[in-house]
Amino acid sequence: MIGILSVFAQLERETILERTRIGLKKRAENGYWRGGGKTPFAYDYDKEAGMLIVNEERKVIFDLMKTLRLQGYSYNELSKVTGYDESWIQGILSSKTNLGKIPFKGELYDGKHEAIISEEEYKQLQEVEKQRSRNQHASHYLLSGKIYCGNCGAKYRYQKWGQRIICYCYSQQKSKPKLIKDPNCNNIRLDSFEIEDNFLEQLFAMSLNEELFRDTFDLSKTNLVDELNLRLDKTQKKIENLIQLLSDNIANDEIKKELAKLTREKSNIMKELEDIKEKERATKTYDKIKNLESVWADMEFKEKRNVVEQLLDKIVVDGKTLKIYWNVSEN
C-alpha cells in the first residue's frame, strides 16, 4: 500500500511540475516575468502587474558598468569601481532581459517591461566581449584554468619566475582572496613544463593508439539514434494525451499507472540518447587527433587551446602526482 501511495505521490508531483512549466511558458510568451527566483539587477518585480519595473537607482549603476565596459574596462576593474563580483557583472551586462526580452528554456519572447539598453549597444558589448576574449586567449598558457589543487580544491595559476614559468595553488596567492580555498595550503609548486609535458605525453599516446583512446572514453559505435528519437516522440505524445485527460478530470488508477510507466520510459530513452551522443562525440574527436603528434609543433596556440578545451576536463596536482581527467565535447 505504501509503495502504491508513493507512486501516486510521484505522479502527482510530476503532473504539478508539468502544469507549472506550461504556465511559466505561457507567461513568457505573453511578455510577463515568471516571478520568483532572482529578479534582474536593474528591475523590480511588480506582483500585481506580473511584470518587471525599472529600478532607477540600479539602472544608474548598470549604465555606469555598460559605459565603462564599452570604454575597454575589464571585469576586474569594474569590480573595483562598483564593488560587485566580476562574474556577476558579466552576467548582468550579458542578460537579454535588459533588451526588454523574456528568456525561457532557450527561447526569447518580447517582454512587456521597458528595455534599458538598445540592440546596438548590446551588440557592441558582445563585440567587446569577443575581442577581449581573443586577446586573453592569445596571452594565456596552454593549460590555463584546467589545473586544480588536490589539497584544497583551488585552481593553479601560471606565473613567470625569472627565466622559469611555475604553476602553484591560488590559495598561496594573496592578491585574489576570492580564489583562496585554504590559506594554509602548502601543495607543491611545479615548473609549467612538468605538467604540460605529462599532459602531452598521454594525449599523444592516445592519438597514436586508437585502442587506448577507446578504452579511455569507453567508446562504441551505434546507430540507434533514429529509433530512440522515434520512440521518444511517441512516448511524449502519449504522455501529453494522458496529462490532458488528467487536466480534464478524466482520471482513474489505470491512467495514473500508465502515465508513471511512460514517464519512466521517457527518462530511460533520454539517458540512452545522451550515452550515444557522448560516444559519437568521442568518435569524431578521435578522427581529429589521430595524427596530432605529427602536426602539434606546427599548430597555432589557439588551435592547441581548442584541443585542450575539447579533451581535457582538469588536471589535479596531488603532491608530485598528476591526475588527468578527460572529457569529450561536441566541438
Give a written overview of the molecule.
The protein is α+β, with helices and mostly antiparallel strands. The chain folds into two domains: 2-139, Alpha-Beta Complex (Hect, E3 ligase catalytic domain fold), CATH 3.90.1750; 141-331, no CATH class. Helices cover 55% and strands 14% of the residues. It is built from eleven helices and ten strands. It has helices at residues 2-29, 56-70, 75-82, 86-94, 119-139, 192-208, 210-217, 225-247, 253-289, 292-295, 301-311; strands at 43-46, 51-54, 101-104, 107-110, 147-149, 156-161, 164-169, 190-191, 312-318, 321-326. The strands form four sheets. It has a three-stranded mixed beta sheet with strand order 5-9-10. It has a three-stranded antiparallel beta sheet with strand order 6-7-8. Helix 3 packs across helix 4, helix 6 (192-208) crosses helix 7 and helix 8 runs antiparallel to helix 9 (253-289). Mean pLDDT is 80; it is low at 219-223.
